[in-house]
Amino acid sequence: MKVVIAGAGSVGSSIARELLSHGHDVLLIDEKPETEGRSELAGAAWLIGDACELTTLKDARLDAADVVVSATGDDKVNLVVSLLAKTEFGVARTVGRVNNPKNDWMFDDSWGVDVAVNTPRLMTALVEEAVEVGDLVRLLTLQTGVSSMVEFTVPAASPMLGARVGSVPWPQDSTLVAILRDDAPITPSADDVIEGGDELFFVTTIAAEDELRNLLAPKD
């Protein structure tokens, strides 16, 4: 897979390092010449230039990229890069880093963003996920703000205890995609029985989150 990353700061470099370790083809774009050729990113291609400029993106051959990641520390840059990637180069998948949570609402399909990664929100979600047993926690917003990945830790008083996955009337727009039990991931089947302490992961529409929450929450 060919991935172009705009921004070779700590976030962009970390993403590049992980992708390279998995055998992907990575090109980093950054304005600062001193970022080029760092030893920990051996194997990555580099392009020094302004990622907001069409000429730079043409030089990066964005039309051949499978994914474009906008990972700079400037939300305006990340939005412009995502928009250009979609509208000018037809990139199939764009991922945009959100630096300021107040700007989260702009990272949608109107700006060409397929997946918005809001680092402060994600960190908050992970903190909540560790302490908020019995509440639905949104981990990621997917597909231009329409869908999300959420997590629910089943409490001891949950009405779901002992229920078979296939017998639960899940909301129409919510899909159980994984169960984490005793630190081991399980691919759900209709015959799996829900146990206390299970971490349930769903892909759901944001509109269906409340319905899912009401289904899972302990009854008074």
What does this entry show, briefly?
The protein is of the alpha/beta class and 220 residues long. It has five helices and eleven strands, in the order βαββαβαββαβββββα.
What does this protein look like?
With 220 residues, this protein is of the alpha/beta class. Helices cover 24% and strands 28% of the residues. It contains 5 helices and 11 strands; from the N terminus they run βαββαβαββαβββββα.
What is this structure's SSE topology?
Blueprint: E1 2-6, H1 10-21, E2 25-30, E3 45-48, H2 54-59, E4 67-70, H3 75-87, E5 93-98, E6 115-118, H4 119-131, E7 136-142, E8 147-153, E9 174-181, E10 184-186, E11 199-205, H5 209-216
Descriptive terms for the model:
single chain, alpha/beta, 24% helix, 5 helices, five-stranded antiparallel β-sheet, 220 residues, elongated, six-stranded parallel β-sheet
Helical/strand content category: alpha/beta
Shape: elongated
Mean pLDDT: 86
Which sheet architecture does the biggest sheet show?
6 strands, parallel
Order of strands, main sheet, comes to 3-2-1-4-5-6
Distance between the termini: 50 Å
The percentage of residues in β strands lies in 25-35%
